[in-house]
Amino acid sequence: MNKLALLLLKTFIGPFVVTFIIALFILDMQFLWVYADDLMGKGLEGTVILELMIYASARLVNMALPLAILMSSIMTMGALAEHYELTAMKSAGQSLVRILRPLTIAIVVVAVSAFYFSNNVWPIANLKFRTLLYSVTKQKPALNLSDGVFYNGIDGFSIRVGRKDPKTDELTDVLIYDHRESSEGSRTVIRAQRGYMKQTEDKRYLLVTLEDGYSYDEQMESQRKTSDRQYPHVANQFEKQIMRIDLSSLSFNKADEDLFKNAYEMMTINQLEDAVDSIEVNIQRKQDDLERYGLRTMLFRRDSLVQYLPSNRLEVEQVAIARDSLASDTSIVAIAESTNPAALPARKGMFASLSYAQQRRAVNQAIETSRSFQKSINNVLDDINSKRKLANKHEIEWHRKFFLAFSCVVLFFIGAPLGAIIRKGGLGLPTVVAIILFLVYYILTIFGERMVRSGSLIPVVGMWISSVILFPMSVFLTYKAATDSTIMNVDSYLNWFKKIFKRNKNADSATVQ
Question: Is the separation of the CB atoms in 174 and 163 below 8 Å?
Fold first, then answer.
């Protein structure tokens, strides 16, 4: 590797690492802002929060990596062009494509690594993150008593203190309800004038020391009839009493990962393909069952008009009628809802031989039957649509793994030539341009994904819509940068406008003369 390639790589790697870390940090802060209510006040250890942040960072790589590549490429090439180093390289006979070759190889390596990450690390990170986040959200608040407010975080107890001294931790006017037998209500009520609370060294038990109080213990009479029970209770007054309360309900317990491992975000490419195949087979089975149900249930009854037709011809006509009914399942109801029997298709069979009252009863029965059949068909169609949306979600994740790698390459060939054109380095104009372009990329990506989830677009179109739009831009900018275009030079546009105004001024002068 020559010195020029090493120079370009050193110039690129620094901004890339810095921008990637900054982007990831900003996204992590956004995550903390969203889930702050679920994390605060639960006495979580620092290792749990750190582990959750690591898994969350791994999930946010798909946003931080493209932004870092876009910003670092603009900053690198902009700095080279601003200090005329890019001009010196071109003067030495090297084209822009030749200059970008080392960076292109580096981006290809990053793209391949991004694909490996999205296919192997991303599912594991999602699984760990969802499991840990679920465990954190289900965690009960830590033992933190507030004045005059009942604390119900400990299973089987409700504790209220009138006042808690922040210096001495002395509690006044302590009220404790013991409802460990929830089906029997609060059997024991304890009230004390003063008290102290202290956890054991292993944090497993809470020692509550109560002074100058009394307790009421209701005695259950399970051996007597309900009508004969008198519900006696035992009142006890004490000067000092020590209670030991189990705090196992406040300990952090991690949920089982098997609860989430079958979700589409936790699958690799092969697993996604198998899941989509299974869903498609299930959808096809539902459609076949629906067609057989329609052929079996929605056939018109044989009457005297067609009783003399050959059996094979009659079967063909019945199947054709049933298929037409499935294609337009409201036609039968529309005909049946007519109160005028003459509006029905003229038949010389059984229906025509009935009296008017019998015809009305037959029509009403047909309406109810048709509506019942239509409701059953709609339920099956709703089930098929839900399975189709589930298949689309699996395909979104399948395309996302390839999309991340390809977007890294596309955004590099947008940022690198754009930096060579604007000829500005640092964190000023390049940062603004990079953020605007990334917002366009992000909005198009989210728009396509939402359209796929709603069923408006197929996954292959929705997930690649941003790349399809931005890829021509990358080709155009690369061409303009290779030909030393001045599309981002403000002076060129000002000179163009001056020429236009000068021509108009000369034309007006000639007209006046």
Answer: no
**Mean of pLDDT values over 9-29:** 87
pLDDT of 113 > 70? The answer is yes
User: How far is 25 from 36, CA to CA, in rounded Å?
Assistant: 16
Q: Tokens for 448?
A: 């396509």
In the chain, the domains with their CATH numbers are: 3-139+401-501 (no CATH), 157-250 (2.30.30), 265-393 (no CATH)
| Predicted local confidence at residue 152, as pLDDT | 76
Say which DSSP state 121 is in: I
- Triad 266, 267, 273: Cα angle to 5°: 150
* pLDDT, tens only, 172-220: 888 888 777 655 555 788 888 888 888 777 767 778 888 888 887 776 6
Greatest distance between any 2 Cα atoms in the chain:
123
Task: Report the alpha-carbon distance of residue 265 to residue 248 in Å, rounded.
Answer: 33
Contacts of 444 (CB under 8 A, 6+ apart): 465, 466, 469, 470
Q: What are phi and psi of 141, to 5 degrees?
A: -60, 150
What is the pLDDT at residue 139? 64
- Kindly report the CA angle at 35 between 32 and 38, in degrees rounded to 5? 130
385: which 2 tokens?
A: 């649509």
**Cα separation of 65 and 58, whole Å?**
11
Q: Model-level pTM greater than 0.85?
A: no
**Closest to 254 in 3D by CA, of 59, 60, 54, 51:** 51
> Strands, DSSP E only, in 56-202?
157-164, 171-178, 188-199
Chain centroid offset of residue 189 CA: 47
Structure tokens at 196: 């102290």
